[in-house]
Write a structure and sequence with these properties.
79 residues; 35% strand; 1 helix; four-stranded antiparallel β-sheet
Length: 79
């Protein structure tokens, strides 16, 4: 999802709704902050992983010819 689409969806909702992210081992936490990140697209094929990976600063891509885009990571209190 792109920011434009997220803004469109959120603008239709009650502005007092809580935003939550998955907890560390279960449950949910209130979204505490966000950060810009590099996202390496389509690198995981196992069903139990998300399709994409966040590249930490200085980290090499998992695949030589992968596509890397800018993204936003939402962060909860436990992160």
């Amino acid at each position: 999802m792109k920011v434009k689409k997220l803004i469109e969806l959120l603008s239709q909702m009650d502005s007092e709704l809580m935003v939550v992210v998955a907890g560390y081992e279960g449950g949910v936490d209130e979204m505490d902050k966000y950060e810009l990140c590099d996202v390496e697209l389509n690198v995981n094929t196992e069903w139990y992983y998300g399709k994409h990976e966040i590249l930490e600063k200085g980290e090499e891509p998992k695949k030589k010819d992968s596509t890397i885009i800018k993204g936003i990571r939402l962060i909860g209190d436990w992160s």
